[in-house]
Design goal:
single chain; 149 residues
């Protein structure tokens, strides 16, 4: 029971979660502005502007730096984790999303509506453009600065 209390009082984790939530809410707002429709699936979905993965990990690293020192081992680990996540989001996951889009088009052109392996189209919105990653990183940094400075 004490662990739940400790988690609820962890300012660094709170900062990261707030940053993730802000990015997810911004995705809904951006889709509404651009597409003129409310898409609440963006609250939990991956991909899109801004990257919530980048926002979460950068705010985690920045908050760790503010709380523990930018010369601490904890900051170094959090910063390295953040870099790996952002690289993956704009590289591997983005490529996987592009490949899914191509495969979905091939299945549609062949005329097979029955996708027996998955039962549905492959998820295309997986990764991020470099701009989406950058925007998420800036959002995460801003939220950490607001909470700590």
């Amino acid at each position: 029971m004490d662990y739940f209390l400790q988690l609820s009082q962890n300012d660094i984790l709170q900062t990261a979660v707030i940053s993730w939530l802000a990015a997810q809410i911004l995705k809904v707002i951006i889709v509404f502005i651009i597409d003129k429709r409310l898409d609440f699936t963006r609250l939990t979905g991956s991909g899109g502007m801004p990257s919530s993965h980048s926002s979460f990990t950068v705010s985690l690293a920045a908050a760790t730096g503010f709380a523990c020192g930018f010369d601490s081992v904890a900051f170094a680990v959090a910063a390295a984790f953040s870099i790996v996540v952002m690289y993956d989001a704009s590289g591997v996951r983005r490529s996987a999303g592009q490949q899914a889009a191509i495969l979905n088009r091939i299945v549609e052109r062949v005329g097979k509506d029955d996708i027996s392996e998955t039962g549905k189209k492959l998820k295309e919105l997986l990764g991020h453009t470099p701009m989406e990653v950058f925007a998420g990183a800036i959002l995460g940094l801003i939220i950490a600065i607001i909470r700590y400075v």
